[in-house]
Prior knowledge:
Blueprint: H1 2-20, E1 37-45, H2 59-62, E2 68-76, E3 79-94, E4 99-107, E5 109-119, H3 122-128, H4 138-142, E6 146-148, E7 166-169, E8 173-176, E9 182-186, E10 188-189, E11 192-198, H5 200-203, E12 206-214, E13 219-221, E14 229-230, E15 235-236, E16 251-259, E17 261-268, E18 284-291, E19 298-303, E20 318-327, H6 335-340, E21 346-354, E22 369-371, E23 375-378, E24 383-391, E25 397-401, E26 406-408, E27 412-413, E28 416-425, E29 434-442, E30 445-453, E31 458-459, E32 467-470, H7 480-484, H8 509-513, H9 522-528, H10 533-545, E33 556-562, E34 571-576, E35 585-589, E36 600-602
Parallel strand pairs: 1-9, 11-20, 23-30
Antiparallel strand pairs: 1-4, 2-3, 2-5, 3-4, 5-7, 5-8, 6-13, 7-10, 11-17, 12-16, 12-18, 14-15, 18-19, 20-21, 22-24, 24-28, 25-27, 25-29, 26-28, 29-30, 31-32, 32-36, 33-34, 34-35
Amino acid sequence: MLMKKYLYAFMLMCSMAIVSCRKETAQFESMPDGAINQRVKLMLNLPKSVQPKTYAITENDENRIASIDLFAFKIVDGKELFSYYTKGIILAADGMLGEAAFYADLVKTTDDYRFVILCNAREEVQKAAGSFIEGKPKDDILYSLVKLSCEKWTAATSANFTPFPMWGEGGVVKGVNAQTSSMTFSVLRSLAAIDVVLAQDASNDFRITSMSIFNANNSGQIVPFSTNYDVNHQSVTEVSLPASVQFLPVQDYHLDQPSTELKNEIYLFESKAASDVFTSEATGLVIGGKYKGSTQITYYRVDMVDGSGKPIALLRNHHYTVNIIKVSGAGIADKELAWRNRPVNITVGITQWSEANLPDVNIPEVYELKVGQEIFQDNGGRKRINLDLNTTYSGGWTVTSSTNWIIPAAGSGPAGQAQNFSFNVASNKSGASRTGTLTFKSGMLSKTIKVTQAVPNFADNLPGLDIYVAKTDLPGTPNWYLAANVKDGSTSTLDALKIQLNPARTGSCAQVYGEGWRLPNYDELTRLIPYQYNQRSAVEKALREAGATLFDRQYFYWTGTNYINNSSGAWAHIINANPGGGTLSSTTLKTSVKYRARCVKSIPL
């Protein structure tokens, strides 16, 4: 029943719109009686667009002017009050250059006036003409002008294209007379544009076959509310919606052939930002396409969000490019079902910019930003971490850290494919797990990676040593083969790390602590248990600070270094943990079970 009511209301609104399009009986122009006119040339700065000529709709189309209406508002005690309106006569227009010239007959006056330009809105002006009363406030006049559309915007070809309503207003004019030779206006389109493109990686696996817009608005204010317009930047800051705005039915766009992009076809009235992501009332897209050459079309939901995942509004005179960065699998079989569910198997980034008519505006290029990994779970020790970075933005990239324990090796870099980026993390001595982020920015895109660092279960602060050291010895007194994770009886003289067993032996360094853990080599162990008092004192201080036990002075400790002077390869070096002992180091059979083992791991640097 609710759906029937909605459809009925929608059909009624459209039928009313058809009726209202009939010829009005009211006289169009409203010049004051007895007015003396002054013909004035006026110039328009049109929105800047970058639309390749190979597309059906070009920049000339987007800036096409079918009609111009000029409204005059007299300034009285700081208030801007309606005086009259008149038609403009087009002299020349160049949509590619973003310029147009026209003339209009203005009333000669010594009073202060503000003039407002409306392009391609004559039908709406004619419908509202009966309410244009002299002395009426400007906002009351302009806010009554609403564009209604009962279907998607007509933009199939240049021959089948509906020009966009546009608005602009100039500064205060100190009278109109024979010396008033010209005026210049900058205008904004009343619609937003959306393009969809596949990034290089996505284009390897996916082709677009259709696009559906859910919850597009059926109407829009031709003139934005004054509180939502930034005069200095000539751009809107918030949506301006008619009180009677409703959602259109789903608007479908179909491609003749599967493609890597859909451009210059989707134009929408402004829509407010959704209250949250993935809500049913959001204005968003469902992309239909084929994954990895499949004949089956599946569907993917895309919400309009910024780089942090926050919903964004669709603003007039703004361009939105949905960059499909990656498609990792088939979507959902039905587009309606896809809209009702969260996105699956698709990664997108949305670039947005104002198509301002400022002379020095720069239109962003289409580019991508990728990092090789977005989440790092760290063991808590100091280290260097490497990842792949790829940005195609000509201005390169920058990176910032949210904390002082995550230190980027570089703060910026150039554009390039598969760059190697590295950052250092400091040892976690806080006593608790902690999380920090790195945020990469490239043009208007951003990507944040998260690093979560545990409390380390080892010491990594040993002076002069770039190794993690286990806090305790391996249990018992294992023989060398077991502690080193090497096959019993092996006579190889290679480093033990080159002849590791997999799976690791129970009770070995690799099994107890994980991959990469090993016995220290001869040099490392002599520095872990040095005989010089001051050096040993520094090592023991560092071990205590890390919560580690000291080396047991009653035992020799295994090194991972083979004794290669013995041809059988059955001997290994041991070092005495007792600085007062008569024997500092020695060699012994690997099968001995009289010695201790303390495991270490090289720090990634």
